[in-house]
Amino acid sequence: MNKKLSTIGVLVVASVTFTASAQEIKGDAQAGANKVAMCIGCHGIEGYQASFPEVYKVPKISGQSARYIESALAAYKKADRRHPTMRGIADSLTEQDMADVAAFYAGQNMPAGGSGGAAKAHDPAPAVAALIQKGACFSCHGEGFAKPIDPAYPKVAGQHADYVYAALKSYQRDAGKGTVGRSNGVMGGIAKQFTLQELKQLAGYIGSLEGDLHTVPESRFR
Fold it and tell me: Are 68 and 142 in contact (CB under 8 A)?
């Protein structure tokens, strides 16, 4: 066999093997329970507010999709999402750690009869409905913002409105500059269509919806 072709073949096999290996990483919720010490100080306190670089309630992540949590942590590690605290935490995690942490939080189901403190689902006001249609929000996040078409997309129904607003604003910023910002071709293009007031209206409606997201208080903080 031609030596050059043989070398290429080895590289292809190695690449396929590496990809397969990466895809085989499966999260272990039990292992994840022992890896969330850095998470519970913010995400394990009901209504806890971040104070830097902007004040807002930290997001509810219990009940969130594992795939989304993994992708968000990876984005912080790669600086596609900029946030000083989250970057520091993500930098300390391996891919297996991320998968385990994601499995742990995804497995924290809503308590029976609970609604995460969100109001019952309701139709948006006409002005908000027009914004949702303009952004084609349901095409990814699903009707009611509660059933994403892909598990790598977040559930957002019932998420804290001030956090949703901060997140939407961050998509309007260049992740390569400053201490905040998110690089995402789809969300960046959508968020830039709206004024800050319109983003606040969208965030307020999303936060008022019923969904799977909630906070499981850490016992030591109850």
Answer: no
Q: Which has more pLDDT, 6 or 141?
A: 141
181: left (phi over 0), alpha (psi -120 to 50) or beta: left
- The span from the CA of 195 to the CA of 193, in Å, is 7
Residues 127 and 200: their CA atoms lie apart, in Å, by: 12
How big is the chain, counted in residues?
222
pTM of the full predicted structure? 0.84
Q: What angle do CA 171, 177, 180 make, to 5 degrees?
A: 50
Give mean pLDDT, residues 6-17: 43
Which pLDDT band holds residue 52 (cuts at 50, 70, 90)?
confident
The residues, ordered by sequence, that sit 6+ positions from 124 with a Cβ below 8 Å of its Cβ are 132, 205
C-alpha triplet 68, 72, 74: angle, nearest 5°:
115
Distance CA 133, CA 143 (A): 11
